[in-house]
Amino acid sequence: MTAHLEPTEAAGRALFMRGIVGPVVMLNLMRFRAVADYAAAPELAPAAPISGAAAFDRYIRHTLPFLTASGGELRFYGDGGGFLIGPADERWDAAMLVRQSSLQSFLAFASDAAYLAGIGHRTAALEDSRLLPLVQTAPL
Question: Which residue from 106, 124, 126 is spatially nearest to 115, judged by alpha carbons?
């Protein structure tokens, strides 16, 4: 099984080629490691091993100020599980909805050096993930 932890260059290009104007909501699905793996960011590693979920909590605490400053907001974060409609053997430990005011704001947020300094918590936490940009097509 191939893990999906970072966007590919082609996927990033395709997202911007969509020509999205206005807000975008990012649907995040996360599957956590049983034990966080800080091999790629040892400077962020806690003194004792922690779970992937605990490492992701550290990522959220680090990220929220940068997200808010960029015009974004965390709309939902909660526990996942098995699908009601979908593959019976596929599970996601958590789901998150993040609203960003525009793709440009999202890019500014995602490339902020201070934000990136803590992204190792996310990498340590995740076994696999999905990120689906959503655009509202009709007012509610």
Answer: 106
